[in-house]
Amino acid sequence: MIDLLKQPWPWYTSGIAIAGIMVMLLYFGKSFGFSSNLRTICSIAGAGKRVSFFDFDWCTQKWNLLFLIGSIIGGVLSSTLLSNGAPLKLSAATIQDLSGLGIHFDGQLNPEQLFSIHALSLKNIVLMLTGGLLVGFGSRYAGGCTSGHAISGLSNLQLPSLVAVIGFFLGGLIMTHLLLPLIF
Amino acid sequence: MKGLKFILAGIVFGITMAKSEAISWYRIQEMFRFQSFHMYGIIGTAVVLGTISVYLIKRFNIKDFQGNAIVIPDKDKSWTKYILGGLIFGLGWALTGACPGPMFVNIGYGFVTMIIVVIGALGGTYLYGLVKNRLPH
Q: What value does the mean pLDDT take over residues A151-158?
C-alpha cells in the first residue's frame, strides 16, 4: 500500500480531492479560494493602516490560513514519507520545446536550473519576483485564482469565472509562446 | 480544536497537488503547450465533480453543519476586471509554474526559493490594493 502511495498519483486523484475539499468547505460555511490568503497576510502585516483594501477583520479568514499551513505540511509529507524519487514523466514534445529554450529537463517537479537555491542568480530572482507579482496582482484584480474561479466559480456556473479562466489561459499562452522565447 | 479540520483539508490538498504533480512547473508548461491531457484531466475532473455537487446541494437544499442553507454568492457582473486580471494572472502562472496554492505546497516540498515567488505575490496583492481605485473594473 505504502509503495503504491509513493508512486506519482494519477490526475483524477487530484481532481476528486479538489472537488471534495470544495464541498467540505461549503459544508463548513466557507468558500474555496486560496489567493485570499495573500490579502489576509498583507492585512496582518499592517497594510490596512495605509490602504483601506486591507482594512478588514482578518480573523474571519483564520480558517484559510490554517488551510495554507496544512498545504505546506502536505508538501513536506509528499517529498519525505510519500516519495520514491521516481522522475516525472513529462511528454517528449515538452522536453524538446523546453530544450529549445535552453531549459534542461531534470525529472524533478520544477527545473533546478530556475528554482534551485544553488542556481540563485539575479535573473532567476527577478523572474520569480516578477512572476509572483503578476500572480498576486492578477488574482486580486480578477477577484480570485485557479481555486476561486476555475474550481469554485465554474462549479457554480458563473459566467464571470469563465471569463477569468479564459483570461488565465490567454495570459499563460502569451507567456509560454511569445514571452518565454524572449526571456530565455 | 475547531481549526483542525481546515489544517487536515490543507494537508490533503497539499499531498494530492504534489503527488499528482499539479505543482510542477513542467506540467504547467506541458498544459500551455497542449502536449498532455494531465492538467486538463485534473481541472476537468474537479470542475465536473464540483458542478454535480453544487447542483445537488441546490437541488436538495442541503444544509451546512449549522443547519443553515448553503448559499454561494454570485460573482459580480463585470468583464473588464476578469479579463484583465485573468490575463495578468496567466502571465505569472506560466512564468512561475505556480498559482497561489502550489507556491506554498512547493515550499513545503523543499523548493525554498518559492518564498521569493510568494514575496512577489504579496507585493502584487499590495500593489493592487494601492491602485485599485484607479483601475477599470
A: 96
Integer Cα distance of A147 and A79 in angstroms = 23
Residue B26: per-residue pLDDT? 98
Q: Is A33 a domain residue? A: yes
- What are the φ/ψ torsions at residue B125 (nearest 5 degrees)? -65, -45
Q: List B residues 35-94 in contact with A (Cβ-Cβ < 8 A).
A: 35-39, 41-51, 53-54, 57, 64-66, 68, 70, 72, 74-79, 81-94
Whether A123 maps to a domain, the answer reads no
Kindly report, residue by residue over A69-88, the tens digit of the pLDDT.
999 999 999 999 999 989 99
- CA–CA separation, B87 vs B89, rounded Å? 5
Q: Is position A131 within any domain?
A: no
- Which residue stretches of chain B have pLDDT < 70? 1
Q: Which residues contact B53 (CB under 8 A, 6 or more apart)?
A: A19, A22, A23, A155
Domain count, chain A: 1
- Rounded to two decimals, the ipTM of the complex is 0.96
Asked whether A86 and A8 are in contact (CB, 8 A), the reply is yes
The domain of A73 spans 1-86
